[in-house]
Write a structure and sequence with these properties.
single chain; 234 residues; alpha+beta; Structural Genomics Hypothetical 15.5 Kd Protein In mrcA-pckA Intergenic Region, Chain A; Alpha-Beta Plaits; 7 helices
């Protein structure tokens, strides 16, 4: 690690949390550097003492963890165990500190990665990589061709238009969709903009890894999966 380093990047690199989560902790005045409250953008020096919630933060000495989890509905993708009772960290209860890569909203289920490698999280989440994520979605009324076409071309939500994507009808009320971006509650907002309501949403694939474990279970990446992941992030 090269010093000085921004506090959010520091917490990410030592395996404490993602940069986004670190920024939240900073705004909540839960981080101390040498027993002083830092400002956004403050840099950590090599011999600084960093604490979160008055607990010393040190670099992880354990091996890196790369986990695949089938998230149930009702579980929140946050590392803030003080705020959310039904959070993903307490649910998995893994002995090493890990955190989710990206999010699935509370009422969605399916595939999510967890790790203690902050740098790989940032690489995966960078929008320019256009990594594919595949979902199965059930909606509240019959799917029409005009709905499929509109979803494929892009829908105006959140002051932008979504990227063109692949959409395939599965049955009367269910479709599959492959996204290469991750806007907040994107699929639900896209459907709402077209006067549909999502009844059930499940992520079944991220990049080259497909969901292959029961709801609520987790497993580690295989060596081949990890090799392909690292190759795709170069």
């Amino acid at each position: 690690m090269e010093f000085p380093i921004r506090i959010n990047k520091y917490l990410s690199q030592v395996g404490y949390c993602s940069r986004r989560e670190a920024d939240k902790l900073l705004l909540q005045n839960r981080i101390l550097i040498n027993d002083k409250l830092p400002e956004m953008g403050t840099k950590v020096q090599e011999n600084d003492v960093v604490k979160v919630d008055d607990k010393l933060v040190k670099a992880e000495e354990d091996e890196k963890v790369y986990m695949i989890f089938n998230k149930p509905k009702g579980i929140v993708c946050t590392t803030d165990t003080r705020v959310e009772k039904d959070n993903i960290i307490d649910y998995i209860n893994y002995p090493t500190r890990i955190y989710p890569v990206g999010r699935l909203d509370k009422m969605s289920e399916g595939l999510i990665f967890l790790t203690n490698n902050g740098e790989i999280v940032n690489k995966i989440l960078r929008a320019r990589h256009y990594h594919e994520k595949e979902y199965v979605v059930k909606v509240n009324k019959p799917i029409t061709q005009s709905f499929l076409s509109a979803m494929q071309k892009g829908v105006k939500i959140l002051d932008t238009t979504t990227r063109p994507c692949q959409v395939e009808k599965v049955n009367q009320n269910t479709f599959k969709i492959i996204l290469t971006q991750g806007l907040n509650r994107q699929i639900r907002r896209m459907c709402e903009a077209l006067n549909y309501r999502v009844i059930a949403l499940k992520r079944i694939r991220i990049m080259h890894i497909s969901l292959d474990i029961p709801v609520g279970d987790y497993r580690m990446f295989s060596q081949e999966e990890l090799k392909k992941l690292n190759q795709s992030l170069k």
